[in-house]
Amino acid sequence: MNKKIFVTGIGTEVGKTIASAVVVEALKADYFKPIQAGDLEYSDTDKVQELVSNSKSEFHSNSYALKTPMSPHAAAEIDEISIELDKITLPKTNNDLVIEGAGGLLVPLNNTNTILDLIQSDYHVIVVSRHYLGSINHTLMTIQILKEKGFNVSIIFNGEEHKTTESIIKKMAGVSVIGRIDNEPYFDKMVVSEYAELFRDQLQSL
C-alpha cells in the first residue's frame, strides 16, 4: 500500500519545505502542496522540484494558489474566495505521496476548518521542529494534538543541534525521530540527496 505522509511544522519558517524535499527524494515519492499562499512565481512546489534528483517523483498542482503570503483564510479573503475542504482532493497517483501543510496545525483555512482537517486517518504525520525559545512547548502541543486524534507521528529536527531541547522532546513526545537536518550553507540536489540517503531506512519503515 502506498504511503501518504503529511509534513507539518510547529510554526512558520521551521523548514517544512526542505524536509519535504528530503522525504520526497528518499522515497522517490510524489509531492502535493494543497494550499500555497504567496510566492506564486517561485512556489514551494517549484522549490521541492528543484531539489529532487530522481526521475520518478511527480509534482502536483495546488488546489488553491493564493496571492498573498498570509494565513490561508486571510489570503483567500483578499482573493475574494473561500477555501472549501471538498475542493482539496488528493492527486491520483500509484506512488507514495508527500503532502506539505501550511504553517502549523491550527492555521485557519476558513471560519471553521484548519490545516489539521486536511490530515486523513491513514496518513503518517511528520512534524518538523526547529529550536527557538518556546519550541519545546510548540512541538509537544503539536504532537499531543496529533496523538489524541490517533495519528502515527514522527519528528524531523531542523537547524542547529540543541541537545537539551531535542532530548526532552524525545523523552516526552514518545514518537520516533527520523533525524535532523543541519543548518547547511545551502541546499541543492546533492545535499538533499545525502539527507535522503540518511533518512531512507527510517522513512521506508513508516
From TrEMBL:
UniProt-listed PANTHER family: DETHIOBIOTIN SYNTHETASE (PTHR43210:SF5)
Cofactor requirements of the protein: Mg(2+)
Domain of life: Bacteria
UniProt-annotated binding residues for Mg(2+): T17, D44, E100
UniProt function note: Catalyzes a mechanistically unusual reaction, the ATP-dependent insertion of CO2 between the N7 and N8 nitrogen atoms of 7,8-diaminopelargonic acid (DAPA, also called 7,8-diammoniononanoate) to form a ureido ring.
GO molecular function per UniProt: ATP binding; dethiobiotin synthase activity; magnesium ion binding
Oligomeric form and interacting partners: Homodimer.
Protein name as catalogued: ATP-dependent dethiobiotin synthetase BioD
Broad class of enzyme this protein falls into: ligase
Residues at the active site: K33
GO terms for biological process, alphabetical: biotin biosynthetic process
Matching InterPro entries: DTB_synth_BioD, P-loop_NTPase
Annotated Gene Ontology cellular component terms: cytosol
Subcellular location: Cytoplasm
Catalytic activity: (7R,8S)-7,8-diammoniononanoate + CO2 + ATP = (4R,5S)-dethiobiotin + ADP + phosphate + 3 H(+)
Keyword annotations from UniProtKB, A to Z: ATP-binding, Biotin biosynthesis, Cytoplasm, Ligase, Magnesium, Metal-binding, Nucleotide-binding
HAMAP family: BioD (MF_00336)
List of residues binding ATP: E13, V14, G15, K16, T17, I18, D44, E100, G101, A102, G103, G159, E160
Pathway terms, separated by semicolons: Cofactor biosynthesis; biotin biosynthesis; biotin from 7,8-diaminononanoate: step 1/2
Similarity-based family: Belongs to the dethiobiotin synthetase family.
EC number: 6.3.3.3
Transmembrane spans: none
